[in-house]
């Protein structure tokens, strides 16, 4: 972090969203100050080039591939299960009304199954991210920050 001329603290982080803080908008419309100037000699490589280089790297492609290999099949399976539940409920009400145990019927079990599969899919996603993507993504983030600051990096 660094102090700006106005005395408030600003983030010295390439991941900081400058537009969210009011920078980049017209000063007349928002009354916001312009972004503080960069320190001289600090930007050896433009940030856009750094992010493009990281995006093209094998490590980034591997993280994206791992993400897609989990999310696409999981989302499709859940969508099919949800549509099957809705279609069955509307086209076969007799099946959904069939009692299973006392007042509990097939439709109630399938509806509760929707909630259960939502929680299970969330748990599986978090576990997959923690075991197969988080470490690599964190290394990419640090390398990107190092490259954006002009100090090199492993990416």
TrEMBL record:
Residue ranges of the TM segments: 70-88, 100-126
InterPro entries in UniProt: DUF485 (IPR007436)
Pfam families assigned to the protein according to its UniProt record, in alphabetical order: DUF485 (PF04341)
Record keywords, A-Z: Membrane, Transmembrane, Transmembrane helix
Protein name per Swiss-Prot or TrEMBL: DUF485 domain-containing protein
Lineage, top ranks: Bacteria, Bacillati, Actinomycetota, Actinomycetes, Kitasatosporales
């Amino acid at each position: 972090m660094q102090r700006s001329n106005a005395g408030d603290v600003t983030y010295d982080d390439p991941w900081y969203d400058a537009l969210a803080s009011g920078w980049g908008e017209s000063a007349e419309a928002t009354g916001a100050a312009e972004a503080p100037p960069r320190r001289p000699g600090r930007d050896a490589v433009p940030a856009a080039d750094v992010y493009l280089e990281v995006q093209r790297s094998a490590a980034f492609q591997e993280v994206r591939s791992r993400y897609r290999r989990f999310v696409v099949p999981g989302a499709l399976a859940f969508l099919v299960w949800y549509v099957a539940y809705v279609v069955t409920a509307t086209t076969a009400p007799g099946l959904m009304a069939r009692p299973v145990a006392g007042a509990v019927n097939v439709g109630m079990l399938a509806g509760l199954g929707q909630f259960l599969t939502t929680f299970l899919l969330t748990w599986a996603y978090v576990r997959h991210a923690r075991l197969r993507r988080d470490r690599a993504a964190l290394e990419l983030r640090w390398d990107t920050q190092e490259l954006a600051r002009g100090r090199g990096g492993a990416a």
